[in-house]
Amino acid sequence: MFQINLEDANAEVRKVLPGKGCYSLLEYDHDVSNDPYSAMTSYFAAKMNIRKRQVVADLNNSSVILQSGAMQMMLGDVNIATDVKGAGDFMKKFIGSKVTGETAVKPKYQGTGKVILEPTYKYILFEDLADWNGSIVIEDGMFLACDSTVDMKVVARNNLGSAVLGGEGFFNTSLQGSGVTVLESPVPREELIEITLDNDVVKIDGNQAIAWSGSLDFTVEKSTKSLIGSAASGEGLVNVFRGTGKVLVAPVRFNGVIATPEGGNTGSTSGGANTVGNAVGSVIGGFLGN
């Protein structure tokens, strides 16, 4: 038997937020472990929702799989195993780790008790695969934890164009089966746009999609019917998701082209296009000059 004061009402600096399945979220309201030199940064970080967060898994004769090195504490009768089923499975996971950047072997924590993960400043998403028709494809580096009933696989892009031009890489991590998976998101959930498709299509300029249903067909296409039209529209190529499923989009993830509130600009789209155009023109001019 153990006792822990995670949900102590007197602990003003932290609170436990509900998650899904066996997972909950320990969030620190503000960082009190400061010195005079970091106090101001910590204060304004908390005001901007930049906080330390820790995922807590409550096991009841069950098991979860974590990202390698993610565990901070184990309480109770909890043991560690691996998710490797044999030599062939290890080779498959090893090859997959090389193309996705994920660790080859992920530890499995099983038993009865609590597993507390390392703190992170990223935002936590709890996704039930039942809401994704049993399969979700995620960006590299987002995986944090999942139920042991979830199978992690590597999926390749359908065509070379989507891999080279889509900004999502040749391979992605796919989580399949049943259960809950925990993801580290670059933006908070309330900032994400969730698009549900029913035999329809969504076209996105750039790699703003951070997760999508495995049932969707992902391609890269011209924004118009012709290359000249695409160039004239200023959009060029777009990421296209077709079929039935969901897409999570981070619309303001890359906001370097948005004007600052003071009226300045960190690099407008037209300015960026002009810069690229001038660079291309210089190269062509150099070739013609020679």
Key structural traits:
disordered C terminus; eight-stranded antiparallel beta sheet; 20% helix; seven-stranded antiparallel beta sheet; alpha+beta; 15 strands; 290 residues
Provide structural commentary.
This protein is of the alpha+beta class and 290 residues long. The strands form two sheets. Strands 1, 2, 3, 4, 5, 6, 8 and 11 form an eight-stranded antiparallel sheet that branches. The C terminus is likely disordered.
Distance between the termini: 81 Å
Counting DSSP E segments of at least 2 residues, the number of strands comes to 15
Number of helices: 5
Shape, principal axes of CA atoms: flat
Poorly predicted regions: 86-91, 93-100, 228-234, 267-290
Radius of gyration over C-alpha positions, nearest whole angstrom: 23 Å
What is the percentage of strand-forming residues?
A: 35-45%
Class derived from helix and strand content: alpha+beta
Oligomeric state: single chain
**Largest sheet descriptor:** 8 strands, antiparallel
Helical coverage, percent range: 10-25%
Query: What is the arithmetic mean of pLDDT?
Result: 79
Order of helices and strands: EEHEEHEEEEEHEEEEEHEH
Write the layout of secondary structure elements.
Elements: E1 14-18, E2 23-28, H1 39-47, E3 53-66, E4 71-82, H2 87-100, E5 107-117, E6 123-128, E7 135-138, E8 143-147, E9 150-156, H3 160-165, E10 171-177, E11 180-185, E12 193-204, E13 209-213, E14 217-222, H4 227-233, E15 237-249, H5 269-289
Antiparallel strand pairs: 1-2, 2-3, 3-5, 3-8, 4-5, 6-11, 7-10, 7-13, 8-11, 9-10, 12-15, 13-15, 14-15
